Every structure is written in C-alpha cells, then in structure tokens.
Amino acid sequence: MTSQAQVRTGKGEGETVGVALLGFGTVGAEVYRLLGENSEAFTHRIGGPAEIRGIAVHNKNKQRPGVPAELLTDDAKSLVLRDDIDLVVEVIGGIDYPRELVLTALNAGKSVVTANKALVAAHADELAEAAENSAVDLYFEAAVAAAIPVVGMLRRSLAGDQIQRISGIVNGTTNFILDAMESTGASYEDALAEATRLGYAEADPTADVEGHDAASKAAIMASLGFHTRVKFEDVHCEGISTITADDIEAAQEAGYSIKLLAICEHLVNEETGEESVNARVHPTLVPQEHPLASVNKSFNAIFVEAEAAGELMFYGNGAGGNPTASAVLGDLVGASRNIIHGGRAPGENAYANLPLADFGDVRTCFHINMEVADRTGVLAAISNVFADHDVSLRTVRQEDGESTARLIVVTHSAQERVLDAIVTKLGELDDVKAVNSVIRLGA
Ligand code: NDP
Ligand code: HSE
Description:
The protein is an alpha/beta fold. It has 3 domains: 17-146 and 321-341, Rossmann fold, CATH 3.40.50; 151-316, Dihydrodipicolinate Reductase, domain 2; 361-441, ACT domain (Alpha-Beta Plaits, 2-Layer Sandwich), CATH 3.30.70.260. 36% of the residues lie in helices and 26% in strands. It is built from 14 helices and 17 strands. It has helices at 26-37, 39-46, 76-81, 96-107, 117-134, 150-157, 172-183, 188-197, 206-209, 212-226, 245-253, 321-341, 378-388, 416-428; strands at 17-22, 50-56, 72-73, 87-90, 111-114, 138-139, 163-169, 236-237, 256-268, 275-287, 299-306, 310-317, 363-373, 393-400, 404-411, 414-415, 432-441. The strands form 2 sheets. Strands 7, 8, 9, 10, 11, 12, 13, 14, 15, 16 and 17 form an 11-stranded mixed β-sheet that branches. The chain has a 6-stranded parallel β-sheet with strand order 3-2-1-4-5-6, sandwiched between helices. A hairpin with a 3-residue loop joins strand 14 (393-400) and strand 15 (404-411). The chain is elongated, with a radius of gyration of 24 Å. The two termini are 35 Å apart. 44% of the residues are buried. L-homoserine (HSE) is lined by residues 146, 171-173, 200-202, 208, 213, 318-319.
C-alpha cells in the first residue's frame, strides 16, 4: 500500500500560482503563448491566476520575440528554488539534468508538470516517492501521445477496470516516416528531416527511430495500466531504422502497412494461472483494413482492452508543439487547482507488482522475407526448417528474380525464441542467400 498522503492545504481562492517554465523550445514556447493568450480563462478554471515568473533556457541570448528578457535565466535550479515559485513545468528533455531539477522541485514542496517520457520511464519510483513525501503533485500527461489523454484515462477513467492489453502507435516521428515512405515513396532520410523540421522528433531523433521514445511510453502505459512498475529497460525494443523500401513494397503487395507498435499485455498462463506483464515495441505488419493502418502522418492511436469496458480506441495528435502544450496546460490547470484549493491528484500505485514475462515466450506471427536460390527443392528444405520447429505456415509467396528468387513466408503464431532458432537455421542453408527481414504481424 502507498503511504497515507499528508494533508495539503491550499493557498486560497484568488491567490496567484507562480510558475517556473523550464525549457522554451517546441513545447515550452507554445505553453507560454497559450497560457498568455487565454490567461483569463485559465484564472477561472484554476480559481486564481497562473503566472509564469521565470523561464529557464540553455541560451539566454537567443532571440525570443514577445518574451520579456527579465523572465529568462540559464540557472534553472535557482529559479526552481525561488520562494515565489509554486509549480515547475519541465519541458527541457533528457534524463539526468531534468531529474535533478524535478527532484529539487518536489523536495522543495513544489508540484511538477513534465512532458518528459524518458525521465518518467527511467525514474518513476524515485519521482513518485519524492512527490509523496512532500505531498505535492507530479503530472505527466504529455509524456504519452501528447494531446491524447492516455495517462488520465489509465490513472482515473479506467481505475475501476482490469486492463488486459494496451497497444498502438505512440511515436509521431516514426509514423510520419513510415507513412511518407509508403504513400509518397519518400526516402527514410528525407522523411526524418521533415519530421524534425515540423518539431515532432526528439532533440536526438535516434530516440524516435530506434524505438526508445515509444519504449518509454510503453513503460509508462504498462506501469499505470497493470499497477506494476515497468521501466524503460524492461521493454523489448526494436526501431524502424532497418526498414527498407523493399520491406514497405513487400508489405503493400501482401495487403499490409508497416507501423511501429507499442504493445503492453497482461498475460495469464492458461495452465498455472500465473500472471505476468509484457511490454514491447517493434515494427509490425498491420492489415490494411485494420483501423491502425489508416493512422497516418504524425497521428497516434491507442487501443485499450479492459475486462468491463471492452475495447476502446483513442486517436489524435501525438507530437508537435501545440498538441503537447495542450496536455501540459491541462496538467498545469489540475496542479494549480490543487495548489489553490488543497488536495492532490491520484498518485502512483504499483501494488500488483507482477513479474515481467520472458520475451522469448511471447507469441506472434512472423513475415519473413528471404532471397533464395531459384531451383527445385529449395522450398521443401525451407518448409522442413519450420516443420522441425513445429511452426506451421500461413502463406508462402515466391517472386522470381534473375538468378535468385524472393521468398516471403508468413507463419502462424510462434514463440519469439522458436522464431530466433528458425532464422538461425535458415541462415545456415546454402540455398538461402539472405534473410532480408523478419517483421511481426498483427495489431
Ligand atoms: P526542444 O529541444 O525544442 O526544447 C528544449 C528546450 O530546453 C530549449 O528551450 C532549450 O533551450 C532548453 N534547454 C536545453 N538545455 C537546457 C538547460 N541545461 N537548462 C535550461 N534549459 C535548457 O524540445 P521539445 O520542446 O521538443 O521537447 C521538450 C520535452 O517535451 C522533451 O522531454 C520531449 O520528449 C517532450 N515532448 C515533446 C514533444 C514534441 O512533439 N516536441 C511531444 C511530447 C513530449 P534553448 O532554447 O536555449 O536551446
Ligand atoms: N518525438 C516524439 C514523437 C514526440 O515523435 O512522438 C511526442 O512524444
């Protein structure tokens, strides 16, 4: 059980909430603009004005039209500790430095709103404990799928249900890239450059394309959904940097779109009844008639399967300055209300503490694209490898080339560890020139 939160009294109706904005990039600049443009509405919604009293940035001398110079500082820590700051909004990014700032704020009795999924996925326990000890709030709605209210839905709306599975597209940059490659034939490099220009990509886009950003979001969703701490390193993670134009074409020909999916499952062993959780991120072939296949550009979509609610789907803007600012400002209103009126938002609860499933046990269907010698007997040799591992084939498609053929095999459901063994065996066959790609199937 979590400890009983200390009683928190409010500043009182009509008092001003002093806000420190840490970061003034894609997200921070929009938070500042929208809060300024709608300040009267925010005052009504909160019960008192929310005033940005300082903005921490890396480079104080950068031109920031419309921002009073006296608000800017490059000393974020001093800003956080100022007596006139009640609430800290962290939109810098990274892990170590924001961790230090967020812990400093929480330990000093200031509530925190952050959009930083990497930080939350890596240090949720420590941050939640610091918030609990100081009886303040830690909000992070923008950390998962930006404007789509996933965190609030898992923390509050579905708090009375048993969630079985959460899956979907939670990274706008990779969805933008895959969609551009599929729909316009854009190159991977050009599509990534455009996603970066539009403000979707992380400061280091490796986090997007290698799946790390989606894995952080998967860790957060699994932790909240299954009441079990799942960290970034617990998530099996594969990105899209190895997906080629050939993979996209082969997928299209077979009636699929390739999407980077995050999948979080609550598993129950049918024989023993033992429960466990699994979270993974990998490129996935989604049938073109499935709703996820038509989630294009930088949009995100999340499916939730819950015992009583059944299937739910959430769709919307998952990246970009404005959509992310919307989620940050929603949190700012919630945290500010509690500063004014007293009380706290629902906190973390990892009471279920379920074990993590072994990734090798996870079952999926696979789409395997091989280059093989174009001669009789090859197909039989390949089929035998699958049969030897007790894996049945759903479809086999062959396209003849000049001296070799492209062979595409789709399996029925098989364990990850069995598929690994099959790929190793295929690679040892003389007639298999290359296993070009192995992509999982399903949504
Ligand atoms: P940007 O890179 O656009 O902005 C980062 C900001 O942080 C800049 O203003 C930069 O200052 C400032 N900064 C960097 N280092 C320091 C430092 N040492 N001290 C003080 N300020 C510093 O990032 P985004 O706005 O895109 O992202 C911010 C956070 O929001 C990240 O955690 C990201 O994962 C998350 N997020 C982003 C989304 C998006 O679509 N962009 C969506 C959802 C979440 P300067 O201006 O001087 O360079
Ligand atoms: N880089 C992230 C994305 C931002 O592309 O989805 C939103 O979290």
